[in-house]
Amino acid sequence: MLLTSAGAVLRLGDAAVEMTFSGAHPNARLEGADRLPGIANYFLGSDPQRWITGVPRFARVRYRSLYPGVDAIFYESGGRVEYDLLVAPGVDPAVIQMRFAGAGGMRLSAEGDLVLETAAGEIRQRRPAVYQQEGSARRGLAGRYRFLGDGGVGFTVAGRDPSRPLVIDPVLSYNLRMGPRPTTAGQLAGLERGGSSIGVAAAGNAYVAGTTSTADFPVTPGALQTSFGKFRGTSVYVAKLDPTGANLLYATFLGGEANDTGTAIAVDAAGNAYVTGSTTSRNFATTRSAFQSASPNPGPNAFATGFVAKLNPTGSALLYSTYLGGSGLAACRAIASDSAGNAYVAGTTQSPDFPTTSGAYRPPSLNRNVSAAFLAKINADGSGLAYSTVVGNAFADRFFLPAVQPIAVAVDSSGSAYLAGMTANLEYPVTAGAMQTTRTANAGFITKFTSSGNDLVYSTFVGGSVESGVTGITVDSSGSAYLVGFTAAPDFPVTPGAFLTTFVPELSNLPRVYPRYGFVMKLNAAGSAPIYSTYLGGAGAIVVSGVAVDAQGRAFIAGSTDAPNFPTTPGAVQPCIGNEFSFANAFLFVLDPAGSRPVYSTYLGGNVRDDGAAVALDRAGSAYLTGRSDSTDFPPTPGAFGRPSGHTFVSKIDFSAPSPSFAVSCIVNTASLAAGPVAPGEIVTLSGAGR
């Protein structure tokens, strides 16, 4: 993109489109904003007279007074160029008129995007999100593109307060809720946890897997399994949404006659979905050539065993589906896939005959009722195991709170798999030179395997003198592992300069077994030391459940907290907790590449309980969260699919807009820590961020 005094030139391959603002001030002033470190030098040929050196760098470029009372700001976000239009109070946004020279055609997509057709492909400008700032909150307005009679493009905005500034800017792409709420206390207390896991395809379609106990989950015609088909129990569901969240592309049940639980999902480049979990059904839907097409423990009182299923992009057929387990208990907790279509599945087992492969690292020697972690790599057609191994007894001593997935898995570009979780086994294998080779309490662990699965690259404990555990993991292109989890240890290994390096005094009276803090750690590629490590929390309990990382190295963390002072940032979708009764809200917390400050942080939820279970990113840097919601005032966005009271929530947050550099994000009563209107004489606590 080239910015000129008249507008912008967009180049796509050999095609170029010139975007101009019709009727704008001919000499609108361009200003650099948000100075970046460093300078740029342009050496044009061998003649020093043509060299341009010492050029400052800026994060944004602002057109000042493009129209009277209208500024435009251009900036880069997630590898693409975005722009905002800032409209002053009393100014009609209809004055903004854009022209596009060089486009072969223009149209509006079904989602309301402006699509410019060129010989080199499409240039797409997403449907505008429009809002006005009201204190620390943003009030969304209905906005859309409109074609003008002379070939121009303008904007239509409804419901504006003319006394307030207006911003035309994508923020929260969508929030939706789907699936009926459970109808009994037993269902609420059991396996009904809404969305358990989320994945995103290249086109921005979100895939959600979870568990439901109700037959009227919104399955779609032509899906793999449209009938709940049970007299009791729970079923797995898999759902695929379009990039706008307005349309359910498919939704299907997946299960048999007993209890089936969906815990994790992964998506490959072709749009195939890999789903895993546990089942007690002896007639779970499997494929004939699968590795284990029949239940490994088919007795009348069968233990739960694992399953792995691969669905085609339309959700209409199984590419494969297999059991995964032995004669004892097995539970699949996490799944990842590689570019060749192999699936990496992690979980726990009590089966002495859990299927392992010759040559894999340390095959099992288990007694029944002693739990171990397992890692299995399933080939692309689901017919066999590339390798499978059992490692240590991951949960030999005790169960732990809260109810989070205790095993996580990731795979890097070289095919090395990373297994993470919590262990109570003093003899869990660790490697020489690892970050932490001994433990004093139940601790987290991370183990990196070679691509063949026959040996360990490294293995280390993660923890302190009090209980800790890893609940989520992802890996970046350099081989650094990002770990999230929980800890109650005051001596957890945090690093100098990290975001939060000490305990908050308000947490000193919480029960020791309850997770006082979450943590975020970036571990170096050798597994020998943290690049950064920080606590995460506030004056309350926290569950950290998932992590994703973008190309810039920013960590996106999902979870739940009942802390009313959990740190949120200016520009947050929801800066304050949604209730004053100690129920948890979900959160999204984005940590900068150095681990030193939040780039973005927001609550998501309402007046009851809302749990964040998982997070995923698309190529543009938008974040997708899923979990469960029991709140009655956690509303879907206009036009989103689903029902207002749905038990599963899915949120997409777009980070194309720059956050304010300094602002108050939340105001609460100092005594009750409840947000709400402020009364004269009330003592309040203000929280915010600035840089």
Overview of the structural elements:
There is one protein chain. The protein has 691 residues and is mostly beta strands. The chain is built from one helix and 45 strands. The strands form eleven sheets. The protein has an eight-stranded antiparallel β-sheet, with no helix packed on it. The protein has a four-stranded antiparallel β-sheet with strand order 1-2-3-8, with no helix packed on it. It starts with a strand and ends with a strand. The longest helix has 5 residues, at 185-189. Strand 19 and strand 20 (248-254) form a beta hairpin. 1% of the residues lie in helices and 46% in strands. It folds into two domains: 2-170, no CATH class; 174-690, Neuraminidase (6 Propeller).
Q: Outline of this structure?
A:
The chain has 1 helix and 45 strands.
- Return Rg in Å: 26 Å
Number of strands: 45
Question: Helix share of residues?
Answer: under 10%
**Into how many domains do the coordinates divide?**
2
Mean pLDDT: 84
**Total number of helices:** 1
CATH class of the largest domain: Mainly Beta
Q: Give the strand line-up of the largest sheet.
A: 4-5-6-7-15-12-13-14
Architecture of the largest domain in CATH? 6 Propeller
| pLDDT < 50 stretches | 184-191, 394-405
Which structural traits does this protein have?
mainly beta, Neuraminidase, 2 domains, eight-stranded antiparallel β-sheet, four-stranded antiparallel β-sheet, 46% strand
